[in-house]
TrEMBL record:
This is Sialic acid O-acetyltransferase. Substrate binds at G68. It comes from Thomasclavelia ramosa. Pfam families: PglD_N (PF17836). The record marks D136 as: Increases basicity of active site His. The active site is at H135. InterPro entries: AcTrfase_PglD-like, PglD_N, Trans_hexapeptide_repeat, Trimer_LpxA-like_sf. Residues 3-77 form the PglD N-terminal domain. It comes from the Bacteria.
Length: 187
């Protein structure tokens, strides 16, 4: 039986819940969230707080960190790995991923995202709806790329960067670690 815990029941967590359900591979899905314990959110129960993560293993063997804050997401991912959780890729059925692309553990690919040939996506990245990552682009771990952004070929996005909605990162550019790029920016 495949049981998935989603860490975080906020807006991003609810989107991840939809994607996990659309994948139709999990027999049971529950949330952990510090602020909504024992609530039912989108027909999914919040069974405990985030700091109780270890107590649900091995009853739940799969976990997804649905936290938008890149550094907190990385901290929680490391804790989950130490406990022994499996970190599945949540990939919406409408997303398109080249068989030559590489997607890291714990990533989420929202509807209509496109990952082209030889693109590399690091662990625990959030790739939201309508994002296009062109061939040979490299996205380091714990990066957030928001809706409608295009990342052109041979581009590198360093760890913990956050790219706003409808941005264009042109060819051969490098985005620094921790950089926050505002919506609509072209670089």
């Amino acid at each position: 039986m495949r049981k998935l815990l989603i860490i975080g029941a906020g807006g991003h967590g609810r989107c991840c819940l939809d994607i996990a359900r659309d994948m139709d591979i999990f027999d049971e899905i529950s949330f952990l969230d510090d602020n909504q314990i024992n609530k039912i959110i989108n027909d999914c129960k919040v069974i405990g707080s985030i700091d109780e993560m270890s107590s649900y293993y091995p009853e739940f063997t799969h976990i997804h960190i649905a936290i938008g804050n890149n550094k907190l997401r990385s901290k929680l991912l490391l804790q989950a790995k130490e406990i022994g959780y499996s970190l599945p890729i949540l990939k919406h059925p409408s997303s398109v991923v080249s068989k030559y692309a590489s997607i890291g553990a714990g990533c989420v690919l929202f509807p209509c995202s496109v990952i082209e040939a030889n693109a590399v996506i690091g662990n625990c990245c959030i790739i939201t709806s309508g994002v296009v990552i062109n061939h040979d682009a490299q996205i380091d771990e714990y990066v957030l790329v928001n809706t409608g952004t295009v990342i052109r070929p041979n581009t590198r996005i360093n760890k913990y960067a956050s790219i706003g909605s409808r941005c264009l990162i042109t060819m051969n550019k490098e985005i620094e670690m921790n950089r926050i790029i505002e919506d609509g920016t072209q670089i």
